[in-house]
Amino acid sequence: MRESLPDPSPPVISRRARELGISVGDLPTGTHNALTDVPGVRVGHTTLVRPPRVHSGVTAIVPDGVGPGSPLPAGVFTGNGYGKLLGTTQLAELGALETPVLLTSTLSAFRVADALVGWVLERPEGAAARSLNPVVGECNDGLLSDIRSRPVREEHVRAALDTACGGPVVEGCVGAGTGMTALGFKAGIGTSSRRVPLAGRDDVILGVLVQANFGGTLRVSGRVVTPADVGVPTTDPCSTTSPAPEAGSCMVVVATDAPLDARQLTRLARRAVYGLARVGAAYGHGSGDYGLAFGTRPLGTPAGPAVVPDDRLDPLFVAVLDAVEEAVLNSLLTATTTTGPYGHTRHPLPAAPLLALLGRGAPGAAGSRGGTRSP
Hints:
The protein is of the alpha+beta class. The protein contains six helices and 17 strands.
């Protein structure tokens, strides 16, 4: 769902990192190179755009069948805790995810949590619930949106949940990523996946979705890339306020169909936050950097698969690091230039200057296993 005023400008055709020939690691991606490659995981967005005042929204990550009576194993890790990740304590204590995971703007997180509770209680899986732990993450979009207006309402949350689907995931300035910035560029939602071989088992899928909004200096393929390096303006001549130092935040959500318990998923969540360092995250004082990982296979059933032994988790650790790095790059490349209510403007990472800086050819159709849709 997209709520916006008409925009007379032509649509921007964005390419993901892999479509530009920038791949990360040696593992193959899933069909769509997205979180939704994990079977039973859907993603939905509601995007709120009322220029120049509002650039905000909500993103829903919906595992099939999750509910208070059918929780999924999960783990959470806090890299830096300047954030409002609702539901953290019970998630860490019990290792059980009872609801979809929603992402939004900081001051809208509490309304989003209330709307999520209402949505779950109305569904069959919540019919008998007397307790419920909604999980809602957030990043601050106050640079490019009127965050104090708290524009995300119940109907927006329900729309994101009800329209969540599989297949390609829209990235960039969409849903919870609409007003986000990272590493000096316009950012937003990014996603990636990996197909992972595990010894003695069928391949499993690991997918990542990031809400990128953090400070630091971008690194691409190990090279420092500043806005000035790729011709992106670094000043806001029309701004009416001075921007706060770009400390930012990042929510990283990981899903996998590998049979892992909550402790092992916490290990994955920890490495998801570590993966941000590859693209230059600063983990500043004012940054809320969180990793949340869940498995799609409920454990403890007689017919269920045995948990993967700890000494065979290394391929999954590699996969999550690679997927996080690529997801962040996708969030920067697929975003669009945005000007907020105070005159601050942020530009996406431009493909052609980036490839020239890296000593590569013009953008081509190299290497993609699945397309992306421009918001």
